[in-house]
Amino acid sequence: MYMSADVRDLEQDQLVADVFARACSSRSILEHITGRWGTLALAALAEGPFRFNALRRRVDGVSEKMLAQTLQTLERDGFVHREAQPTIPPRVEYSLTPSGREAAEKLLELIDFVEGKVPEVARARARYDEAKAQRQQ
């Protein structure tokens, strides 16, 4: 049976998302946003638009291939906007969409939390490693 795009969109809007359900598409969206490179790309783009190589320098350690794949995925999900200007060489700039800005704000809160907990986590790891070493003796 053929359904128009409008009908399919309406049905999609009426679905109840449940990230704990294996088949729910929200799970893959969450993975795209919270994967290592997705999180870092969104957080970097919260600083403003970036050209590809500048973004790659900002997200230290990401390969060109992984950054390209990450940006394509985030663009497909509606979090990143890619603007290609018809110049020679082509000038491509990436920025956040309104949904991307919203996601980035939440990620930045988590990043601030994690960075603030680094000393506490380091102490917890040291205690854990020491206790584990004593158990193995």
Automatic annotation (TrEMBL):
Identification of the protein by name: DNA-binding transcriptional regulator, HxlR family
The organism's place on the tree of life at top rank: Bacteria
Keyword Transcription included in the entry's annotation: yes
Gene Ontology MF annotations: DNA binding
InterPro entries linked to this entry: HTH_HxlR (IPR002577), WH-like_DNA-bd_sf (IPR036388), WH_DNA-bd_sf (IPR036390)
Residues covered by the HTH hxlR-type domain: 24-122
Alphabetic keyword roster: DNA-binding, Transcription, Transcription regulation
